[in-house]
């Protein structure tokens, strides 16, 4: 396997995360990190996402020890219950019925690793979100767009799902899947220059 041309790697195949990273003018390549994502007994949601983010970045960093690798994992938590990514329209509708009219948390674990520099940083970022009260007609209409499928909590705030949200407190980019404010601070600590002329 060829070594990457760029010193920065995003351990993800998420187009949303790639778009956010491109938004701040960073040059990187994206390589998916396939790992087993399973919550441990009595594990707190924030500990879970931080552990998964580290596992993703570690998987890629082992192959590219001279690169700085970013890992991330995002979950939606309602009353201490982690809502996954629905694979079917039925599951998506069930999740949206649970979330509608209520406040929930979006938690993203982020990690930055560079093996050659002995750098391993991680953090969990929380954002409070309140979804509007939705009718069955609205839920059905949204699910018909197929957007909720395979999205944490069955919605995408950066797309059509934006119309479902009543209030947000905290990082918007965190809800999309990559909290840029916190990530940039970790990259600074890892000696990645954000403002470097490119």
Describe the protein.
With 198 residues, this protein is α/β, with parallel strands linked by helices. It has a single domain, classed as Maf protein, CATH 3.90.950. Strands 1, 2, 3, 4, 5, 6 and 7 form a 7-stranded mixed beta sheet that branches. α3 packs across α4. The longest helix has 17 residues. It is elongated. The model has no long low-confidence stretch (mean pLDDT 93).
Flag low-confidence runs. none
Would you tell me which CATH topology applies?
A: Maf protein
Judging from the principal axes of the Cα atoms, what is the shape? Answer: elongated
Query: Into which percentage range does the β-strand content fall?
Result: 15-25%
How many DSSP helices?
A: 6
CATH top level?
Answer: Alpha Beta
- Summed over residues and divided by their number, the pLDDT gives a mean of 93
Number of strands: 7
For the sheet with most strands, the description reads: 7 strands, mixed
Backbone CA Rg: 17 Å
The chain-level structural class is alpha/beta
Number of domains: 1
> What is the annotated CATH architecture?
Alpha-Beta Complex
Order of helices and strands: EHEHEEHEEHEHH
Relative helix content: 25-40%
Give the termini separation: 27 Å
